[in-house]
Specification:
Number of helices: 7
Helix content: over 70%
Number of strands: 0
Structural class: mainly alpha
Length: 200
Amino acid sequence: MNKEQFLFRLQKGLAVLPSETRKELMADYEDHFRSGLEHGKSEEEIAFELGSPEELAQEALELQPKTDGHAERAATARADVPSSGIVSSNAGPKRQASFSFVRLVLSVLWNLIAVPLWVSAWALAAGLAAVVLALLASPLLFAADFALNRDWNTAQFYAVLLMLGIGIWVVGPFLDLLRFVARSTGRYALWNARFVMGRN
């Protein structure tokens, strides 16, 4: 979904909040979109990273101080519930906390496998970066060698031109690959955080 769709669904979920509170929250998410766009992300990527607007709205509602009439009615309803019902309602948060801990353990176990793969991906990117830089710097190395030794080698000169051409040809795809690895790493880290917090 794009920014307009995301903000529309979020505002709909926040409709029960006071006007000022709702405006502040909406402004925060608009700033998040603005910052993401300035860093080269698309509206769809930003919306994906933020998650479901309905879940975000629900979390915002749960974090609001319970001083309105709705909270009073909820408290009255809880007072009318038999003691067995109170025990049942209190068990909910305990299960949620336990579930979050289980998610944390699962995340750690999964990352024992995933993190070495990400490290390998970055090591590969670093190795490719060294190769690309060496190809692009080959004319400078050739010029430095000629300046020191005063020995012209035509075959070496053409080899350097070939290396430079290859370096120019691969630098674009390499930068695309580097951006992909960086973006994927960021998304994976965000997914881990959301998974542990129970938002996935």
